[in-house]
Input
Amino acid sequence: MLLLWLILLPVGTGLLAYASSSTRVRTALLLGTAATHTAVVAFLWRNPDLVALGGWLASDALGLMVLTVVSILFLTISTYAVGFLQVDRPRGGRIFVTCLLAFLAAATLVTLAHHLALVWIGMEATTLALAPLVFHRHDRRSLEAVWKYLVLSSVGIGLALLGTFFLASAQVQGRPLLLEDLIKHADTLQPGLLRGAFIFLLVGYGTKMGLAPLHAWKPDTYGEAPSLVGGLMAGALTSCAFLGLARAVEVMAAAGQSAFMRPPLFALGIASLLVSAAFIIGQTDLKRLLAYSSVEHMGILVLALAIGGVGSYGAMLHLINNGLSKGLTFLAVGNVVLLYRTSEAASIRGVLQRAPWSGVLLIVGLFAVTGSPPFGMFVSELTILGAAIRGGYAWLAILIMALLAIIFVGMAKMILDVAYGKPLDSGNAAPEALPLIGGPLVLAALVLMLGLFLPEPLREFLGQAARALGGAAP
Amino acid sequence: MQPIHDVLLLLVVLTNFWVLGTTRLSATIRATAVQGALLAGLPIALYPGFSAHILGLAIGTFAVKALLLPWLLSRAIREAAVRREIEPLIGFATSMLLGAVAVALAFSIAPRLPLPELHTRVLVPVSLSTVVIGLLVLTTRSKALTQVVGYLILENGIYVFGLSQVQRVPFLLEIGVLLDIFVGVFIMGIVVFHINREFDSLDSARLTELRD
Output
């Protein structure tokens, strides 16, 4: 029952926040829910494998990893939101808090659902919950962004539903669409329909992840949404979408269809890396830069899935690193945007002088998100590259390394220009509110820790998740 | 004499072409309302005999797809005071032709799928061709409202495929689907309203400020 309450808690507090007219009550509800959520997730780490609603909800290693990313990211982002809403609050912030909590409920549902239709419902709900937040500023540009986001995500999610139905029709034995039964009777699944289901789920959830060439909504949406919403999308929403795809991979691997999955996963992954490298070079906007960086990391994730073996382990580790690093960079960029009122890189110079903490966070974020040592992404990318070479995909490892180098140069150029240099106007050093610094600092500490050592329970869960995906622990 | 559900399904295809061929936005909305009503009749025709599950699905479908959504959409065009779709990227005749190709392909591919024969003969091809025609409307028309209609048609196609699984997948799914579509279109409707107010036009082709 705990699992059900974990989903219902944000629903309830979200409704309360909408009904409340006091900013202080809403803040308390947001922070209280986020903290409680993280506490319950910590409890789930000690007591894994809980089941509720007759197997429809369960906490397995794969879901728990995504849930942990969502929960930590949400906690830091909601402390940040407190500071953000004091500065930038066009319409009272009531809808803002309610939508954030609704997103938390939906994302929790995605991670805990073991019924693939429930996974789908949760994904749809996450999409819709964030739409009003993209439209935060109510101007033409954000309107265009939210329109593209809604249309493309809805089509993607629609195709994922078709894939879910295909999967149901491929099933001969067991309760329909229940993950446990799908895997237990995987050998009786009808291969033709199963493959069709996988393609639709890949395209559908791939659109939500923002894999190239299905990424068209991503730069516009991340560019126009408030930075913390961008962080939530790049860190949590994409992780949930990855989980949707990972569930399909789980079933395919159990049915012995790994060879069929590889070509489409390779194609989308390589396309994503190529597109992000091409658009990061010469990018002029900080938030769009981060959007293409997100396309890049989603590409790495599906490539790691396709490589299989230890690659699956690397994928899970990379997912966690990506979620936390993306939160860090988006919040650091958010501080810059609050200070300069723009995310155009050309009109931002000398962040380190005007806001030292944010400047340092920005630079740390740059190194964390490009996979430099000693941060977590360095470890996960190294794991994936190692798995590629051992799996006989040396060409792929070389291609990935070359593209990562290009992406690093492009990102470093822009972010270092912004951080150093002379401030264009003679603005004084701006005061930096604690909520705007604390959240990203915690995230920076976490990605640093993941680069230096992996706690034993985490290693254990990552191994379990990798085995569920048909891979192995190193 | 064709069974009644096959007749309903073929009428669904006709409403698709109605949308593809018309320039009047009000006619497009009327076509989706008719399509919604046909879809509401389908579960009863496919699974005769009284069952609360099927009856509830039919009533819910009718309420959302035949009444609520068309009403929301027609309110949106009344507020926006637009009547016609302008000549789209791909002309009306060409898009009709593409739709016909989609239907032909769907009917030739579907029998090869390992599904019960009851479904592959008409239901699955109608579903797949409706999905493709929905995508066609969504991508080739320039009015934001017509794109919402395209999305609805796409969802209707998926719904038809879902009907083949309706007895195996529990009730919750259908509620979720109806609710999601409703909320999705509802939010899109709000955005359409804002597009109209902001740009004084329902033309999503004007949304071109964001690019690399």
Remarks:
- The two ends of chain B are 57 Å apart (CA to CA).
